[in-house]
Write a structure and sequence with these properties.
Elements: H1 3-32, H2 45-63, H3 66-71, H4 80-97, H5 110-132, H6 137-160, H7 170-187, H8 200-216, H9 222-247
């Protein structure tokens, strides 16, 4: 009998929330986009955005344990901090929708505005969570998922629009390679250690967000963006490599 509430929470979060979020965002964007204002390559950007948001929400709910949510009364999806984070995820999904839109669209400013607004909310939702005491497992999972997705959507649009070179997508791949490497070691029964307690990764992530906003901004010259790209990308990739070496025991924290 006690398993029914957990089962109900699981079904509600894993199915109803992603589908509702996808449908709401798709309908909203369909109302904003029109054939007069936006052309597409193949798919409708509103549908792409809705599917991306649904995928993010499904991933969050799939990885959470329902009993963990039940134990924490503050772990509600629509608390103030989590609502801000959900809006950020929707904004990043809007950016992703532009992967099917050519760069000469009349809405060329939308990806920069959507991603830049998400960056602002990234700083705001954490502050709100700490202020009102809503720092929860669900909030952390939402934040991490949307951060990772944003680092895929924004570089991909910038590359397809010719603002960034294709090798900049290594930023998008790096986190998945890192997580895959750790999963492989677990599978083989090899030990994993605590990562470095450092603000460097967060600082570099913030720098990446600002740079990607600039890269998506039509007023910023492409030549400038491409010239700065290696300088911005290299430190982030090096930090991923450093963290992997530390977590796998190949490098001690004292050796940083």
């Amino acid at each position: 009998m006690e398993q029914r509430p957990e089962r109900s929470v699981s079904v509600g979060v894993q199915l109803a929330v992603p589908l509702s979020g996808a449908l709401a965002l798709t309908i909203l964007l369909w109302g904003l986009y029109s054939p007069r204002t936006i052309d597409t390559w193949i798919l409708d950007p509103a549908v792409v955005a809705g599917l991306c948001l649904a995928g993010q929400l499904w991933y969050v709910s799939h990885r959470l344990v329902p009993s963990q949510l039940a134990r924490d009364p503050q772990d509600t999806l629509f608390g103030l901090a989590n609502t801000l984070t959900l809006v950020r995820g929707a904004l990043y999904a809007v950016v992703a929708g532009f992967v099917v839109v050519p760069p000469d669209t009349r809405l060329v400013w939308v990806p920069a505005l959507a991603y830049g607004s998400g960056v602002v909310l990234d700083k705001l939702d954490g502050t709100v969570a700490r202020t009102v005491g809503q720092t929860t497992a669900l909030g952390k999972r939402l934040d991490m998922t949307f951060d990772t997705f944003g680092f895929v959507a924004a570089p991909l649009v910038a590359v397809l629009w010719g603002q960034l070179p294709v090798w900049y997508l290594s930023l998008s791949v790096a986190r998945y390679v890192y997580r895959g490497g750790l999963a492989w070691r677990r599978h083989r029964g090899r030990p994993l250690f605590d990562g470095p307690d450092s603000d460097l990764g967060r600082y570099l992530a913030g720098m990446q967000m600002v740079f990607l906003t600039a890269a998506l901004t039509p007023a910023v010259p492409t030549a400038f963006v491409r010239s700065v790209a290696p300088v911005v990308l290299a430190p982030s990739l090096l930090v991923f490599a450093r963290d992997f070496l530390i977590v796998t025991g190949r490098l001690s924290v004292q050796e940083e």
